[in-house]
Each structure stands twice: as structure tokens, then as C-alpha cells.
Amino acid sequence: MLKVLFLGLxxxxxxxxxxxxxxSLIYILLADTTPPFVVIHRMISGIDSFPLLAVPFFIxxxxxxxxxxxxxxxxxxxxxxxxxxxxxxxxxxxxxSVVFAGMSGTAIADAxxxxxxxxxxxxxxxxxxxxxxxxTAASATLGPIIPPSLPFVIYGMMANVSVGALxxxxxxxxxxxxxxxxxxxxxxxxxNGWGSDIKFDxxxxxxxxxxxxxxxxxxxxxxxxxxxxxxxQPTVIAAIVLLFVADRVLRFEAVLPIMTPxxxxxxxxxxxFTPTEGAIAASVWxxxxxxxxxxxxxxxxxxxxxLDTVETTATVLFIVAAASIFGWMLTATGVTSAISAxxxxxxxxxxxxxxxxxxxxxxxxxFLEPVAAITILVPILLxxxxxxxxxxxxxxxxxxxxxxxxLLHPPMGMVLFVLARVAxxxxxxxxxxxxxxxxxxxxxxxxxxxxxxxxLWLPKQFQ
Length: 463
Prior knowledge:
Elements: H1 2-11, H2 16-31, H3 37-47, H4 54-67, H5 70-82, H6 88-104, H7 107-112, H8 114-124, H9 129-140, H10 150-159, H11 163-169, H12 171-192, H13 202-227, H14 232-250, H15 255-269, H16 275-293, H17 299-332, H18 335-346, H19 350-365, H20 370-388, H21 392-406, H22 414-423, H23 427-434, H24 438-450, H25 453-461
């Protein structure tokens, strides 16, 4: 009956969160076995969680980066690095999303922020609007896979899994997805006879490579200095100061923004701060860059960023709160146990369950916003994963990627609608433009599903 009520409210056009909370309340009133105030109690307790404090701060960090002119710096850095390849701006689009993913944590922020710059540049260079939209949509899915990731925070809280482990688990899958997307760009460039978009300039490439080397060498240098006996905190502080001095003297394009995920992963893997504290550190870092260092963020824009963050956070947490009571009702009424028993009666083969779970999550992702989908699916699917011995960190990455692919599909794909508005294309034409890019995404999904070491190797190195 609970499922019927939920589907009925959802079909009537109500938002997902209201449908979940409303179905739970109506069921309680009709059953008359539980006091109605339990709905409010469970919703409040569902968001009374320390890990969920990371949500507003990661949203704030992404909004600050979007509004502080950082997107143009990332674009110029990616252009210098790969713009000289055939189909150059397509490669720039993917690489720019890889870098921006380390700051925003959401696909929609990537599509709306960096995507606006990328689509305009590709159109100015003569690329078809459909190609520009397709590659931008595909690369936007990297946002929640490469850390930090808002969906990983929600999944980690719901599944009682380490958010830090999930962040580490997303790095190699993100790299694989980026390589497959760049291979797809190369295919289209070869097929259509596209050339490069900027001249091969050794000095420009050398500068971009030098910035990459600085970002890669910085954490390694700290690691070895601490290993040799230097105190950790003073060493990190001194290294950060030297980094800012080098940025001012050498006038780097994007070293400091790219350092955001390095600081996050480094701080969490070494135990300097928790993922929640890391979200606060990312916000402080973004605020310092925008207001003090680059001085591209005005106080008026900062106020607007804060208001946007409050609005987005309220939406996300209301979905989590509504899903908490709905998930509790699913468990209390025996729905989750019945589904688990049914699935296990059909198969006890992990590979077959993962195939069925992928099909379910791809379908659900077309109709539900990722946060809502995670909060509904986790109580249903995780008990089965535990019985079949499937690692929950691995399954979390697979779930998030499924739901990111769902963002590219009608009727509820938010990235689809954002890019249709940005590119001024109809939803139908935008959907057709995205279809070829489902190939690298689905290949990535299959690889991540059936090669667990792609997600689990890196977290195991830091255990």
C-alpha cells in the first residue's frame, strides 16, 4: 500500500520529497498503529547527522569557484594543455571538467558553470552545437565521480560507509571515464576531419605541464619531508605559503584552483581532517582565492552565492529528510525484506544481481533526482549486497555513476535541461545530441561494475 501511495502521489505531479513524506504520513494515518508525529521525528533525525554538514559546505565551495572567475582559468589551462590536438576544444571540454570536478562535486554545477564557457567557445570555433552539447553533458557526469562528491556524502551517510574511502574510490573511475571520452572526441575528430583549435606552442604547453608538475610534486614533497622527520603542521603551512609565493612570482594560470582536490584528499587520507571538515576547508580555500588572492569575487556576489547555497542545501536536505521517513516505513512494513528475499530467490550470483541493479538504477535515474534516488535505493539494495558479499564502497561508485547517466535523460534529467537552456536547443535535439556519448559512459559503467579493483585499489592503499 505504501508503494501504491508513493507512486500515486508521484504520478499526480508532486515533487519527489513531498510524495515520499506524504505517502508515509497517509499510510500512518490509515494504519492507525503509529502516532503521526513520528513522521516529523524521523525526518528531523534523518538530517541530524554530522557527515551531512559537508553538504552545504561542498555546495558553497562549488558556487564560490563558479562565481570567482575560476572557470576561465581552468578553461585556459586545459586549452594550453590539449587544445592543439585534433578536435582540441572537445578535449579541453573533458579535461576542464576533470579539473572542475575537483571543486564542484555536482554534475549540474559543472554543466551550468564551465559548460557555459565551453559551449560558447566551441560554437565560436565552428563546432556543431549538438557536438558541443553532447561532450559537455558527458563530461559533466565526472563532477560527482571525481572527489569531492555530494552524492558520495549522501550515500556514505545512508550506507554507513567512509566518505573518505568513497572519495578515493572515485579517482581511478573518473580517470577512466575521462580517457574514454577523449577517445570518443578523437574518433569524431578523425571521422569529420577536424584539425586543432590552437597552434602547437611549446612554451605554452611547457608552462601548463609545469603547473601540472607543481600540483603533483607538492603533496609528494610534503610526504617525504614529514617522513624524514619534519613536523607535519609547520611543514604543510610552509608549503602552502611557498605555493602562494610561486603563484605570484610565476603567474600560474590554475595551480591554486587545481590544488583544491589535492588538499581535500591529502588532508582526509592523512587524518588531518574528516570529510566534513574538508568541506569547510574547501569553502575557506575558495573564499580566500575569490576575495583575497584573485579579487574576482565581490561582496555583493558573495551574498548571492550564500543565498543560492542556502536554497540548494534546503532542497537537498528536505529530500534526505523525506527519504528518511520513507525508508524507515519501507523497512518497518517489510518491503525491503520482501524485495531482498525475492531477489535472492531469483539469483545468488553477484554478477547477475549487479546487472539487474544497474538496469534498475538506470531506470530510476531517469525519473528521480540523484539524492532522492540514493536515499530510496540504499535501504532496498544494500542488504542484498551484504548478503552477496559485494563491497559497499564499490557499489556506491556504481550507484552514483548510474544515477549520473540518468541526469542526461528525459523526463527528469537536470543536466539535459540545463544544457538545453544554455545552448538554446530544444530538449529533443539535446537528447539526440547526448545519445552517442552514452557509449563511453556505459562502457565505463560495465568496467566499474565487473572490475572492482578499479574502485577499491586506491582506498586499500590508504587503509
